[in-house]
# Entry
Amino acid sequence: MAKNKEIIVPQLGESVSEATIATWHKNPGDNVLTDELVVELETDKVTLEVNAPATGKLVEIKVPEGEVVEVGTLIGLIEEGVVSAAKPSNDQGSEAKAEKPSGSANNNTNAEQVLSPAPRKIAADNNVDTTKIQGTGKGGRVTKGDVLESLNNPASQAPAVNPVERVKMSRLRQRIAERLKDSQNTAAILSTFNEVDMTEILALRKQYKDKFQEKHNVKLGFMSFFVKACIQALKEIPTVNAEIEGSDIIYKNYYDIGVAVGTKQGLVVPIVRGADRLSIAGIESEINNLAVKARDGKLTVEDLTGGTFTISNGGVYGSLLSTPIINPPQSGILGMHKTQERPVVVNGKVEIRPMMYLALSYDHRIIDGKEAVTFLVKVKEALEDPRRLLLDM
# Structure
């Protein structure tokens, strides 16, 4: 007799006890191989992949997509055994379902099952019978566009509708919202601004970028210069690298720098650990590795926790100036922006220079205005003369 293997919610990381079933990549009846991706879980920090514990057939999904589960919850069963080559894959199974006779009594039920939230909501609000709509989506799925088209049909008696789509916030997006609001409610956030002439860094990068990539197998970007400049400034103004814990100030004599990265799931801040011990090439390599993991949804909880200071680059989206929000429990965050040519006065003459606005948001409870301004000036000075970074001056 075949033995069933349980699919269990694994440990999710420190201080994380529950997750949401994000996506089942297999349907009941599908064949699976050991360590093949079966389901994705979404926590308030990362998306985790759960792989098959054995080879066989997925016989039951116990918890559907969208449900919240705790560590150790049984969410599916796999019947161990030899995989049949004739068994349809996940996509083939979906097509097989779509090939059922359209006149059967089960077809309406199937149409209701594959209807996604957006078309279901529009159809319900306008009394549309979706079983009478010819779906144009995959496997005959009725899409939002199909429902809207039926409403625009002159023969339809349903009233016109303003198309809207209601989508439940992901756990990551909910957590981002909570943390940012908590940051505003807790910290006394103030921002100070300066601008940096990027001429020297641009010239240095242009001169060495090809040789740098050839030697280190990674592109020479701007972020490594900013990380190095911030570390120098943090060493001189240690309160910007500190945090409040109760009635104490915790001074951190290490430099784990968070680098904000935008993903399709939302903003995440992976950590470059021990950044003060890394070279320019080491920082660029680590940032590249973290960016790839973020893009592929492979970041772990450890990648996202424990930073001491954060750098956010709104310039990649074209932002000229913004006031970033502190990532608690940190006390400071540097906002980079778009480099844009502007007329500036240099030695009594007006010249066109590539300029970038910098913004430092800081917790005024422990960082005084003088310290914040001095920190930003130190960053500016280091960036405008990048040789200072190499000489640690």
